[in-house]
Amino acid sequence: MNHTPRIRTVVSSTLLVVTLVAGATACGEPEGHPLSLKPHDAADLVSFNGPSKDEKADPDKPLEVTVKDDDARITDVTAVDTDGRHLAGELDADGKRWHSTTSLAAGTRYTVKITTENGDGAPGSRTYAFGTASAKKFLKVTFGPQTGTYGVGQPLTAELSAPVTGKAARATVERGLQVRSAPAVTGSWHWVDAKTLHYRPKEYWPADASIEVRSNLKGIKVTNALHGSAAKPLKITTGDRIEAITDASDHSMTVLRNGDVINTLPVTTGKPGFETRNGVKVVLAKEQFVRMRGESIGIAAGSSESYDLPVYWATRVTWSGEYVHAAPWSTGSQGNANVSHGCTGMSTADAQWFFETVREGDIVKVVGSDGETMTPFDNGFGDWNLAWDAWLKGSALHGDGTPDTGTDVLTARLRPQV
């Protein structure tokens, strides 16, 4: 009896199964092509302009892959360096050419994988590996502050070893300086000057957050003369959200922890001519004892405003000498008059409590003063006095990448003002 092959098809929602019943053979497609095309080595189909085995690639020379067979096409190209960074590239619509669109990283190795199809539609692949020449000049990055636990107002800083100008170069730097936090926040870098960047969230950091900043600039071309170098990453954490709000017109300070009031203290702030700065400041340091002299802020010795005082429990909030500190000589005015030379004064017991309650990065905000507003960068961390839109303008990725102030943050640090 002559048995004719019968094909039984079983269809499900996810799988098509074709079963050949007795006597059937896998005879192939009607045109005679095999059902499964064997993968091939694509070396005969493509040209690659990478260096020879014993040479290193010029980081400034783009990579290019082209087909040698008019019937073949490139389907994909991936180029990854030893740090896991993918090189950006572009494949022509007809699949005949691929080229890199960014510079290679210097001083590293790349693995390039090319996949193709020949004229019969059979897949092919080829992998190349090569090194890149080292850079001659490096851009180093140092992150701040030091590892530790800080208040929720603490900005991150990045100090560069050389100035970087121009929006494109600054955008390259920003893309390479990666900040991650848990919980996650919306934040941005801001160019303070050509060698300094600050990073802050839109709002204060969350309490009890973990924050990490690292550089991904190693080998990356920043300018024609500079490539990024490796940088030590930084991890910090935040503690409770501590905010000290001083109302100069009411002569009082309200201290909150995570939104709850934990103390209200009578204080005195700057008198006329020496008004305390309004706005948000951040605790910079704590000094249990400091000697404060009028000459340090330009008061002539022997004048009616001159002073030379031992001061205890001093919490610094500006580099020009503004502190929250013990002022036992003014206890009669604390809570009802402003008599200081710009500092916030309180009783010794209250100053010690404040000193022991706050940490670097905590928020100290002044309202109701006739003084000027705290400057953003040249006198400590006044970063929070910039509105978010203004902050973003100082980013090369979100704005024009130029600082709102021309003031160099390396302004000389002045002495206490009492």
Automatic annotation (TrEMBL):
Pathway: Cell wall biogenesis; peptidoglycan biosynthesis. Keywords: Acyltransferase, Cell shape, Cell wall biogenesis/degradation, Peptidoglycan synthesis, Signal, Transferase. It comes from the Bacteria. The keyword Acyltransferase applies. The active site is at H325, C343. Residues 242-367 form the L,D-TPase catalytic domain. Gene3D superfamilies: 2.60.40.3710, 2.60.40.3780, L,D-transpeptidase catalytic domain-like. Residues 1-26 form the signal peptide. InterPro entries: Big_10, LD-transpeptidase, LD_TPept_cat_dom, Transpep_catalytic_dom. The keyword Signal applies. SUPFAM superfamilies: L,D-transpeptidase catalytic domain-like. This is Ig-like domain-containing protein. It comes from Streptomyces atroolivaceus.
